[in-house]
Design goal:
Shape: globular
Number of strands: 7
Largest sheet: 7 strands, antiparallel
Strand order of the largest sheet: 2-1-5-6-7-4-3
CATH class: Mainly Beta
Radius of gyration: 18 Å
Number of helices: 5
Strand content: 25-35%
CATH superfamily: Electron Transport, Fmn-binding Protein, Chain A
């Protein structure tokens, strides 16, 4: 399989911009009978980790198998696509004590509250801290730690082609 050239990979600054400005990510978890559960989610990006809240089947799947893949991308046309695919491990924060022990969750709560302006991202909404906490059987915070990143900035392809034609 062809590899994505490092020349079109996102820089650290471009990755931070993508992760702080993108609205949704997609998370792929593995369910029973090896069925893939793919779900769009809101998220926060803190110190190279991805935080989100979840419930239901995603949480059940992550408890069973914490290995997962996340995708954050923007634009629709191939020449404009920018994205990052992360592979790694998700940790379900099972209790309020687990939440309090996480060194970056408070920052994630504030960033997510500001990013989504209290729930729906209205321009005039007052940003507020995300108050979500562990509840019931499956409402939980999740922290995802990537071990592998593949990123792409397809607009760089045109620049590379133009440079080859000139050189």
């Amino acid at each position: 399989m062809a590899r994505i050239s490092r020349k079109v990979a996102l820089t650290d600054e471009e990755l931070d911009d993508l992760m702080t400005s993108s609205w949704n990510m997609r998370i792929a978890t593995l369910g029973l009978n090896d069925q893939i559960n793919l779900t769009p989610m809101w998220f926060g990006w803190v110190n190279g980790k991805i935080y989100f809240t979840g419930r239901g089947q995603k949480i059940v799947n992550l408890r069973r198998n914490p290995s997962t893949t996340l995708l954050v991308d923007k634009n629709e046309r191939f020449p404009e696509l920018v994205g990052a695919m992360f592979q790694g491990t998700a940790s379900v924060l099972e209790t309020a004590d687990d939440e309090n022990a996480d060194p970056d969750l408070e920052e994630a709560r504030v960033l997510i509250g500001a990013k989504y302006a209290g729930g729906h991202g209205e321009a005039d909404a007052t940003p507020r801290r995300n108050e979500f906490t562990a509840a019931g059987d499956s409402n939980r915070w999740v922290v995802f730690t990537p071990d592998r990143l593949v990123s792409w900035d397809n607009p760089k392809i045109a620049a590379l082609r133009a440079a080859r034609q000139q050189g």
